[in-house]
Amino acid sequence: MQVQLNTIHKQFGSLVANDEISVQFEPGRIYGLLGENGAGKSTLMKILSGYQQPDRGEIVLNGAAQHFASPRQALAAGVGMLYQEPLDVPVFTVLENFLLGRAHDGERPQQSAKALTQLAGRYGFQVDPHEHTRELSMGERQQLELLRLLAGGAEVLILDEPTTGISAEQKDLLFASMRTLAREEGKTLILVSHKLDEVQELCDYAYVLRKGRLVGGVQLPCPNQELVDLMFDELAPRPARRQPASGDVLLHLQHITVRTPRLELEPVSLQLQAGQVLGLAGLEGSGQELLLRACAGLLPLSGGSLRLGGQPQPDWDYPRARQHGVAYLAAGRLEEGLIAGLTLTEHMALVSNAHGLLVDWPQNRQLAAQHIATYQVVGQPESYIENLSGGNQQRFLFAMLPQNLKLILMEHPTRGLDIRSTDWIWEQLDQRRAQGTAIIFLSADLDEIAARSDQIAVFSGGRLLRSVPAAETTADELGHLIGGAL
Amino acid sequence: MSLSKTRLERVWPLLPGLAALLVTTLLLLAMGTSPVDAYSAMWQGAFGTSARVYSVLAFLVPLLLAASGLLLTFKAGLWNIGIEGQIIMGAVAASWVALRVQLPSGLQIPLELLAAMAGGALWAALAGVLKTRGGVHEIFGGLALNNLAILFTNYLIAGPWQPPEGGSFRGTQPFGAHALLPLFENSRLSLLSLALAIVAFAGVALVLTNSHWGLRLKALGQNARSAFLLGVSSNREMLLAMAVCGALAGLGGGVRVLSWFDSLRQSISGGIGYLALMVVLLAGFRLVLTPLVAFFFSAVLNGSITLQLRTQLHSALGDILTGVLVLLVLLFGNYERVRRAFRRRRSQADG
Amino acid sequence: MHKRLIVLLSLAALLLAACGGAGPSGEGFTFGMILVGPQNDHGWSQAHYEGGQYVVENLPGAEMIVFDLLNPADKPEATLEGVVDEMVAQGATLIFTTSDEFEEDTTTVAAKYPDVVFVNVSGDDALTGEAPANLSNVMGRMEEMKAIAGCAAALTTQTGQLGYVGPLINHETLRLTASAYLGARHCYETYRGESGDDLQFTVSWIGFWFNIPGVTSDPTEVTTNFLDTGVDVVLSGIDTTEAINVAGQRAAAGATVWAVPYDYLGACDNAPAICLGVPFFNWGPDYLAIAEAVVEGNWSQSWLWNGPNWDDLSDLDSTSVGWLNGPGLSEEAAANLADYISKLASGEVAVWTGPINLQNGTPYIAAGAVGTDEEIWYLPQLLEGMQGPSQ
Hints:
heterotrimer; A: alpha/beta; Rossmann fold; 3 domains; six-stranded mixed sheet; 16 helices; 20 strands; about 25% strand; C: alpha/beta; 12 helices; about 35% helix
């Protein structure tokens, strides 16, 4: 199916997300949509998939102009989008999710299950129709969502950052299926990504957006530098990593255990020095999240002890952790961290710790404007946080962190962020490290863990498998470790 | 397309009002009454004489107080259905002072009003504690506490506070004149209570637009999890919002016994709390609209008394009119806001 | 209900024809009728409403303005004063306020409108002298009718257990409930030959004159509870018809139970087959007399406590209170009941004949003595032999 987007314009308040963008996608080909965070990629694709409506401009499929009021209408017309977080219902079974929102009158469950397994088999996916979706890994949920879109009649498939949080094998499988879909079945595929290597590996052609505008289209493969030049005005070289300040022991965990209904963390003992970075590696749900949240006081310890700066902390909880200079940044920024419906200024006022009764709005607006400038956030003090791109939300989260922290705990600190934002964030963290702030983070990006950590702890099945100095391992080795192939 | 949409959005708020007018007009025609006569009867009943206007204002006072309190709890994402019981317990506490304390009016009345606020606040805090400590949803806790407040009133009226000549279960013996709010021109309107209601609303407006506390409530209401992670002590703020709302509702209950009635009666509130919930929903949680809608409700309900007497139509016509209006507004007008509020509730319930 | 209404209307038409327009004309006369409950409750409020309709039928040209459900639970925004203001503005010169809930407020507004006649049911301000000159009280002398109701129940019960669904506790309800017990006990001994001590008579107070969800006990549940614990005849003392409704449902399901409703002539219609009869108020004649006096300008203040027309307890043109046998009453019981009624009428038997002890054992009326009006009116508690709270 041929897709034309003609002069698409979309504005959120004073923020122009898409500025008169016109692009064209041909059937049987795989397109890359590149751009740094906030460039307008996600907005453009949400418009194409019916999730948002443009202020101006039109969508033309095979020569016919379309108007989508909902994703469902878009799918009915043949456009399906696979989101970073698949839109499945965790308590449903695989089959129920597969059938969700689809007319399947008169079809018996066995027939539907058979249809599902057959369709899955065509792309080498293995699914159990009766398993609960919440038991699936991110990669498997993605496969299910893809199958659902295909069964719903999708001729155009949009994949938004599909490779974060899935294993190497799942990524290979996904790319193979995308090639099959384009080359053999004549579908139109669009890959939204900021990972240049992936786009080079998979795509035939790439469109590059910058600050809401289309800045170019490139036949692939091409030299990486050409893409980088299009994506960024200028890119500062990655600064050399500062040496860890060898400090006193800041955090001391002794045989701590954490129990949740779904997973139990077996005893972990660790020491972390001021200024040190500990990376936690493992497939999602291997126990590293439990450790991080227990350190933040968000999950109670079911055993063992936690010492901070030499002091035992028997009644460790989140408010106490905050008092002691521990900060926590969760993966879901708009779920745990930022507040949709509040402006940037309101966020500043909320965390300002001012003691007066009334809010000094001019002062907070000024403060927000300062942070916007310092942290290079694309947005205005009056912008609602949910209208910022993911990368800018993350920047703003960092902007709200207090000074002089002892420990920063982070889940996926750079997930979905482009190279420049990622470098920028680690540069910020590096500065804090130099002041003695210790960092614990978990990431699905093994390169990031290998490159940014001083010490690496590898988790599998609720167990700390191994703790190694970063200098003694590689991302490759980590990849094998987390798969349990030891 | 986008242009016509904004024009539609601009007239959208007027639609439910017009639709409600249409529906009620059809209803009146179906009952064989001239709508013009009916609406003029309502107008007369609400504003026809100065006595009617005073009655509208007197009924407005507790309604506005309760609605102002609800603006706070709704902002914090709480459905304080227990407001009805908070009004009642405010009335009970004010009655306790009125019956048991003998002071000059200048001291007696402030003490009664403070007791009313404390009574309502306590009852609301109870619902808050049930939620924060016991994990009981404020809707269920609130409903249970409403019934308990009614039972408690009945016990007091039938038991320890019954008039010396024997209980008729109607109410306690009338309070002394020194314990009652001064009334304006033989009406049931106390100008002091009206002033207090206006001050209370202005205070709530200031809190919600300009205070740190109001901002924390907003954060809590929009996303309790994030607010907690950003350092908002959710339990404390929720309790505080409930308590302040309860204090305002309780003040309304106190006004009810000290001016509308002259004693503690059974059904002292008679659903004013639920009416206040409808007011805030109809106003779409918007500050400016809330007192206007509360005034409108009071006028419609007072007007419907005259409507019933003139037309001899069904006695629930006034309730039907307001009910239709709220339903239509929820269906068309503020549906986006309400939907968001509900979605918020749901995501909190999941988390 | 409609059957009764037709009977009532045709009676009224007959009367009109007979009188040939001899009565005063109601042209231009407007009166107000304020009800505490709904006007179609088949109970207390409907009895008043139909009393008002009786006035309209018999006083040609008279107009009635009705306001029902005036209570703070149903209409927190309405006040008696506001309603009266509007009625007076519409030209009402006579206003009935038909609940003792309205007693205090009626006295207040009567002072505000000295040219309007007020009638409060069932206060006693006109008796005690607290009322302004334009306020009367009316109440039906229901005690004997309640005794007849109790008698009908005692003549019918097979388990020897009677249940009484009471409203709230005050002098009026205590004496009416006690009257029903005295009638029941008398007939249980006299006609059934049993010992009065074997008759179980239980009172359950719901807390108000009608069900207010969340405020009162639910009369439906109270009745159900009675029938589940061996009671086979329920008597109602409340304004509404839950007792007969529940008993009717039970009977339809095969149970052997009966009911005696209250207040309204047509209340048996809710479940005729198991209705033993109804003690009812017939406000029409008293209301008509008052309305005629107001129209003719010779009204004067009074405290009316009118009894039945003993010659015909169901003559709607003359009796203030009455008793109507229900289809559920057996022939044998009806005969015994007729005997009891004739003895009450002749004065051979008095309901309140001693010895009568209060529930706590205190002697109240000595053996052989008959209670005075005052003793009956101000009965302080239930009687010995009755089960249920006295306060």
